[in-house]
């Protein structure tokens, strides 16, 4: 490759994301010292790519093991390794990741021919939007943590102020990086980019692991509640060490404390979402996309052709919102009402079987359809399948722990029997929905050039091409739009129509099942049945491990179901 061609910048590389270049002089083949004697340039490139992935994966594995050793030592030996030591280690990792991200933004991505291809499947708008949403909540969480630690500076370490400050900078930089570069298939500095991505993934995993296991503030709040109960009972104050650092009678301190507890799950969600996006970027390093991998027409979301799915789904959302508000009002009191748990579990017991039946019917329709499977290489879809299966383990794992605790105590009690039914139905619903979504993602849906699309475009053209001059013409246009909707609905084949109805219904159901636990409805922790069986610390780790995965599963299912709906 000549120096002139190498130094000439490609002005259209980033703008033309859907075009694959044909000039071989723009391709940067990977090199690795172990495979410099390979006979073929392409063979040397493939071997170097595998070696780069192996070494970057080993780097991430060692960082994760080191951080896990620190966090485990903090849990089992709080004298030798403290929480401040873990924060110092994570702060160092955050700073290293910040340096690499800034270098990527200002250096790597701006090199000539750095981004010749962009993966159209990666970085969907809903997942980038969730990065911004959860990132904003995580920033607010760190602000609350800084405020809370500042008020209690007499008994808090200064590291508790420095760590969230670095966290805010890390979250902002990472969110900007993922929003603008999640689709990149970088073609230069392959190994350094892979190592940087893997280091960032390892850092996010360790932050998630710390959030799962760190119950310091929760223990402080529990100790304050016990202190209040002791005072009401007329007993002497406790000598518990956490009581020495209690929130004073200040409104702002209570706001910081309550906000921290409310936003706590968002931070774990943010770490998981970032890991998934970064992993796709890691898989796309050095990837060259050919023309047949690039979709010529991207299906758009249209609400036409569905009636019962939106109606049933909207009903489930409205009822769920009412149940959620009732639960929030009752469960936040000092002594939660027994009735609110019954209502909450009853809502799930009615909704989950409907979702399971819909998923089973959709799977059967997929089996009846004679559609080819899409076997093209797609890292984003492969990751979607892995994430659906892995995230479902959170709710399934918690459900099995609950089943053991409830059966071992008193399964004949009303609340215990409802919780037991809820746990069993959660397992069945997760499995059936996963089968339906994964099967739908692998179906190749090619719309035949038949009457449906033409008819829809003609009807829409007739409706919206007329000028709205008078009220009479407006009424005629509304009537034609209704007829167009009915015509489209009747023209859809019954299989496609049922698939769309089921997909839309499941989308709305998963949205409300995502909202309820995300914004504070956690009966599995607040009903105290499993907590009294396993103990506070053990059940705290189980819930903090399973609950964020469950919330992430609902959010990720919405994206998968929308894709199934659009391609149906």
UniProtKB/TrEMBL annotation:
Subcellular locations according to the entry: Cell membrane
Membrane-traversing stretches: 54-75, 87-106, 126-149, 161-179, 191-211, 261-282, 303-329, 341-365, 385-408, 420-441, 502-521, 533-553
MF terms in GO: proton channel activity
GO cellular component, one term: plasma membrane
Disordered: annotated span: 1-22
Membrane topology: Multi-pass membrane protein
Keyword Translocase carried by entry: no
Main localization, broad class: membrane
Keyword set, alphabetical order: Cell membrane, Hydrogen ion transport, Ion channel, Ion transport, Membrane, Transmembrane, Transmembrane helix, Transport
InterPro entries: Otopetrin
Pfam families xref list: Otopetrin (PF03189)
Record-stated family: Belongs to the otopetrin family.
Protein name: OTOP3 protein
Lineage, top ranks: Eukaryota, Metazoa, Chordata, Craniata, Vertebrata
Gene: Otop3
């Amino acid at each position: 490759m000549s120096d002139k061609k190498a130094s000439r910048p490609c002005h259209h590389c980033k703008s033309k994301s859907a075009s694959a270049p044909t000039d071989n002089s723009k391709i940067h083949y990977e090199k690795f010292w172990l495979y410099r004697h390979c006979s073929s340039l392409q063979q040397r490139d493939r071997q170097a790519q595998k070696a780069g992935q192996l070494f970057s994966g080993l780097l991430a594995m060692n960082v994760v093991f080191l951080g896990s050793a620190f966090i485990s030592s903090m849990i089992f030996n709080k004298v030798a390794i403290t929480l401040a030591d873990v924060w110092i280690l994570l702060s160092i990792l955050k700073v290293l990741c910040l340096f690499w991200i800034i270098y990527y933004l200002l250096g790597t991505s701006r090199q000539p021919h750095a981004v010749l291809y962009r993966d159209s499947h990666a970085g969907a708008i809903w997942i980038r939007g969730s990065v911004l949403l959860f990132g904003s909540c995580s920033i607010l969480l760190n602000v609350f943590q800084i405020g809370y630690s500042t008020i209690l500076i007499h008994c808090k370490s200064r590291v508790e102020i420095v760590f969230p400050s670095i966290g805010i900078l890390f979250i902002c930089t990472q969110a900007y990086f993922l929003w603008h570069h999640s689709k990149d298939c970088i073609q230069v500095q392959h190994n350094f980019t892979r190592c940087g991505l893997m280091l960032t993934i390892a850092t996010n995993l360790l932050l998630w692991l710390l959030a799962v296991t760190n119950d310091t503030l929760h223990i402080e709040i529990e100790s304050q509640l016990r202190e209040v109960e002791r005072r009401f009972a007329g007993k002497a104050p406790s000598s518990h060490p956490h009581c020495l650092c209690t929130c004073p009678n200040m409104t702002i301190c209570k706001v910081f404390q309550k906000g921290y507890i409310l936003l706590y799950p968002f931070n774990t969600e943010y770490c998981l979402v970032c890991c998934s996006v970064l992993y796709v970027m890691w898989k796309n390093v050095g990837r060259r996309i050919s023309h047949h991998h690039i979709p010529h027409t991207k299906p758009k979301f249209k609400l036409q052709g569905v009636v019962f799915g939106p109606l049933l789904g909207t009903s489930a959302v409205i009822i769920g919102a009412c149940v959620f508000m009732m639960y929030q009002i009752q469960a936040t009191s000092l002594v939660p009402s027994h009735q609110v748990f019954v209502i909450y579990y009853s809502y799930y017991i009615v909704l989950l079987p409907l979702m399971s039946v819909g998923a089973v019917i959709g799977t059967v329709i997929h089996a009846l359809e004679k559609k080819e499977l899409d076997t093209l290489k797609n890292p984003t879809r492969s990751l979607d399948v892995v994430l659906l299966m892995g995230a479902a383990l959170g709710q399934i794992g918690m459900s099995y722990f609950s089943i053991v605790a409830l059966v071992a105590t008193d399964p004949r009690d009303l609340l215990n029997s409802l919780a037991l039914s809820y746990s069993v139905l959660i397992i069945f619903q997760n499995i059936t929905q996963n089968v339906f979504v994964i099967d739908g993602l692998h179906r190749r849906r090619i719309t035949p050039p038949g009457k449906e699309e033409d008819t829809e475009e003609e009807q829409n053209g007739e409706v919206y091409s007329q000028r709205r001059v008078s009220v009479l013409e407006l009424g005629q246009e509304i009537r034609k739009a209704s007829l167009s909707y009915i015509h489209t609905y009747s023209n859809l084949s019954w299989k496609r129509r049922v698939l769309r109805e089921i997909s839309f219904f499941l989308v709305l159901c998963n949205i409300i099942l995502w909202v309820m636990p995300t914004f504070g409805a956690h009966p599995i922790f607040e009903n105290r049945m499993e907590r009294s069986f396993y103990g506070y610390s053990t059940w705290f780790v189980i819930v903090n491990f399973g609950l964020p995965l469950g919330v992430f599963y609902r959010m990720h299912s919405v994206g998968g179901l929308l894709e199934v709906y659009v391609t149906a």
